[in-house]
Specification:
CATH superfamily: MetI-like
Radius of gyration: 23 Å
Shape: globular
CATH class: Mainly Alpha
Number of helices: 13
CATH architecture: Orthogonal Bundle
Number of domains: 1
CATH topology: MetI-like fold
Largest sheet: none
Distance between the termini: 59 Å
Number of strands: 0
Length: 285
Amino acid sequence: MTIPHWLRVALLLLPGVGLIGAFIGSVVFIAIAQSFGYYNLTGESGFTLDYWREMLDRRLFERSVAYSLYVGLFSAVASVIIAYPFAFWLRKPFPGSPLIGAVLKAPLLVHGLVAAFLYVNVIAYHGIINQFMQWIGLWTGPRVLQNDNNAIGVLILQTWKNMPFALLLLTGAVQAISDDVLDAARDMGSGPFARFRKVIAPLTASALQAAMVIIFIGAVADYSFQAIAGPINRQSLAQLMVFFKGDGQWNNAAVVGVSLMAIALLGSGLLALVARLFVKGASLR
């Protein structure tokens, strides 16, 4: 009997993809079940909506959702905005371009915890920035810059860390645009900004969506930057989940974890849609 081609491919992928799917699926299933009262580590297990009802009524949970969305959206948008000019600049090789590209992509090699600690040392009460501002006479004394209430430090770290990833995707997409297309747009009187709106942005929309979605998911669920450089009066969803787990409240931690997965999934889909509509609308103006 001849085995169909699709079945042979499925059998070849099963040992790898099947195991990954099984592990991820089991973790997601247990998290969802725990959020509804099953698989309790202590006490009786049984279906209940109490954990969801209590969590949705908590002001702390609402603040964590808003804060995580704020960090995720800003990081995704800022990373793409900064990466686009560099991607177009590095589109064609020139003397020194490999070195510049390597420097711009260097943050990908730095672990998030290391980056956060380095940043904290720079903005610390007696750090480099405070010493420099006092040396040039702009400040009369050191100022508290760490753990600011607006999470500026977290946004800087997220953008610094994720911009190189956006640059990788956008550079490949920009380099795939033919010179003839850009030359034709230039010959028809389109300026740099018009060429970007009507040619570059539409042709790189898929890379733009991929970069924003992946950066958003990573930033909205990040823990290390939040714990080290984030504000002390606000918690991200990842911090809130770790807090409940450390306190032994596994069901509440599961509710936060499932909420985080849902927000990452729905938010990334909505972000990709908005990015597509924005590029389409900009190209039609």
